[in-house]
# Entry
Amino acid sequence: MSNKVIPLEAIPDRSGHTVTIDGRNYLVMNDAMFTFYQRSMGELSDFFLALRDEKKILGCRCTKCGMVRVPPFVTRCPDCNFAPVETVEMGDTGKMLATPPITYFANSLFQQQVPFGRGRLLLEGADTALSVNIYTTKGILVPGLVKKGTEMKVIFRDNRVGEITDIFCVPAAELTADQLAQKGLTASALDWETSTEPALPPAGETEAQHFAAVLQELQALVGEMNGCERARKDIAGWHRTVLVKAAGGEFTLKIADGELTVEPDKTGPSDFVMVCPDPKVLLDGLAYRGSLTQAIMTRNLWISKNIEFNTIFKLERMARSLARSKKV
Ligand SMILES: [Zn+2]
# Structure
């Protein structure tokens, strides 16, 4: 199915809820009002058409002072008494103008894209910076990975519609020389699978004992989660096998449509890898004593695929659901 203007998950269920006012119950139903509209890209159409159809980034150069603006948001230069500008094709590499902030908690429209950075990229030869989303192909996006001055390459999405989100950028250091040289590089041409796992500290008897104790507690917690209807709903329809590596040992976390299991050791191929030197970080997150997202941001928890932050998000919801069901 093609992407819809309103994502399916943003559409409320056909149901309602009860509101009690002064002892009387009132039924409030979800309903909808449709107001679609069309918007013209106007004079910026050439820029968006070039993105969509030719995988090119256009800028404009003042015929008098030579200033290059990207995107080409003026047709005459305000610095040169409105001298005309000419369209120029830009390259697709550049440097970050400032350190980009990272979004982990997005509204429902962008939830499928987190975590992403958003910053301004100064393309080679340009005098103004382009606002662009930032990703990494090597594990999870964490603070410090992309900074002011980091060399970046613009990547084109495979399915382009003519919006600025048709492009994003990744650190140039993650690409091969061939990829860097290639014009109009697409997302599917990148290697999203190979990432370098952070090294675990050396482990001895103490770490092994700690690991065994945490694993036991984790198994008990998972048992509780599976008995909680609310928590099960959070991973309904979701299937993931996660290899968890900690100092002191490894185990497998399996998410299978409402059922969560913890099995000792590696049990076969996994969808992604989680590295947490102290396994208690994961236990605390699932027990709602800490936050897994916070652990990722502080580099106490690492995952091998950025897109799997969605799975982390679901696990955090399970933790919250179990904690809430205990309160009631
Ligand atoms: Zn000018």
About this structure: The chain has seven helices and 17 strands. The radius of gyration is 24 Å. Residues 44-189 form one domain. The first strand starts at residue 16 and ends at 21.
